[in-house]
């Protein structure tokens, strides 16, 4: 089994996190939505990715962790409050060159451990139709579909453009 370690985000992680975010979102973009994805990337960098220490401020009960393999960043995720009893899993990404070896499942398990440790017995998340592997992982690990909807408007959580989003939750 691959040795993966987790630690809270540090300033030195900025460039690898930023680069991976851009790379993955460009890979996810269907050809007809490339411009929308580029706008989403620019917006998300400005509102969240380029300001992770402020956006995921622990005083606001938020956190951002990186996954490392042999010292190299291979993934990351964030947690932010979603009501009094839940955290929302955000920005869970795995480097495409490090996929299919269990990193995402281990990151998800670690995120769930963090939720429990912080006294939140539920995790909520969303993913989209352009991320079928993520959807399969969440289903396989006990997340239940709460709703699905076509996201027309862009935000820091969705590209918009009519892409179907799946909202899921799990009691931990």
Plain-language structure description:
The chain has 172 residues and is α+β, with helices and mostly antiparallel strands. The protein has a domain at 5-123: Gcn5-related N-acetyltransferase (GNAT) (Aminopeptidase, 3-Layer(aba) Sandwich). It contains five helices and seven strands. It has a seven-stranded mixed β-sheet, with helices on both faces. Strand 2 and strand 3 (72-81) form a beta hairpin. Helix 1 packs antiparallel against helix 2. The longest helix has 15 residues, at 14-28. The two termini are 25 Å apart. The relative contact order is 0.15.
Radius of gyration from CA coordinates: 15 Å
Q: Give the low-pLDDT segments.
A: none
How many helices does DSSP assign? Answer: 5
User: Strand sequence of the main sheet, in spatial order?
Assistant: 1-2-3-4-5-7-6
Question: How many individual β-strands?
Answer: 7
Roughly what percent helix?
Answer: 25-40%
Strand content: 25-35%
Provide the CATH top-level class of one domain.
Answer: Alpha Beta
Q: By helix and strand content, what is the structural category? A: alpha+beta
The general outline is globular
Q: Note the main sheet.
A: 7 strands, mixed
CATH architecture of one domain: 3-Layer(aba) Sandwich
CATH superfamily grouping of one domain: Gcn5-related N-acetyltransferase (GNAT)
Return the CATH topology of one domain: Aminopeptidase
Q: What is the average per-residue confidence, as pLDDT, rounded to a whole number?
A: 93
- SSE series: EHHHEEEHEHEE
Give the termini distance in whole angstroms: 25 Å
